[in-house]
Every structure is written in C-alpha cells, then in structure tokens.
Design brief:
Elements lengths: L9 E4 L2 E9 L2 E5 L5 H14 L3 H32 L7 H16 L3
Antiparallel strand pairs: 1-2, 2-3
C-alpha cells in the first residue's frame, strides 16, 4: 500500500477499492473496505454528485453508524437493567402480537 496517500485519497488495486480513513485527528490509519461492485458504483456516483471524496463519505457513514450502534447498545443495556431490577415486567411475545393484531383490526373497522 502506498505510504504517500493523503487522507482523502483512494486507490484501486486488484479490482477493489482501498480507502484511507482517520482513527483519531492526529493519527492517520489505513483500512481496506471491500465493497460489492454496485455499492462501489453508487459510492462513486455520490462522490461525483456531491464533490466530496469517497473516503469522506465512508467516514461520515461509519461515524453515523457507530453512533447509532452505541445508542442501541445503551438502550438495550438500560432495558435489561430495568427487567433485571423488576422496574418493568417482560411481556410474552405471542400475547403482545395477539393484542396488537386485535387493536389493529379494531382500528381498521372504524368508519
């Protein structure tokens, strides 16, 4: 891998893309991201439309995904703690779906 790649550069090698991304503001790290051809094509189209480098688009997408994933884990941990402490009670899945179907059918029957 070339050592002189700038942060926003991408290079094609062996039919795939190698994108360079930043791990921390002061440290440049390299990561290879393997994309399906259709995804790579959409990425390049978006990069061209927006005038932004593909690496920046990937960085933004990953940052957003990681933030959302962290929030999801925090929510799951909180729900688990609520169940474990007895603050909330678990509901049987079949019962919940039966109630949901009944309420939905009742709403559809309204004039």
């Amino acid at each position: 891998m070339p050592s002189a790649c700038a942060f926003n550069d991408w290079i094609t090698s062996g039919g795939g893309q190698t994108f360079h991304t930043r791990q921390a503001p002061a440290k440049l790290t390299f990561m290879e991201v393997n994309l399906r051809p259709e995804t790579e094509s959409r990425l390049q189209e978006l990069a061209q439309q927006t005038g932004r480098p593909a690496a920046d688009l990937i960085e933004d997408a990953m940052a957003g995904y990681m933030k959302e994933l962290g929030e999801t884990y925090a929510t799951l941990d909180s729900r688990y703690d609520d169940l474990k402490s007895g603050r909330v009670k678990a509901v049987d899945g079949e019962t919940a779906f039966t109630d949901l179907r009944r309420k939905s059918k009742k709403r559809r029957a309204r004039p």
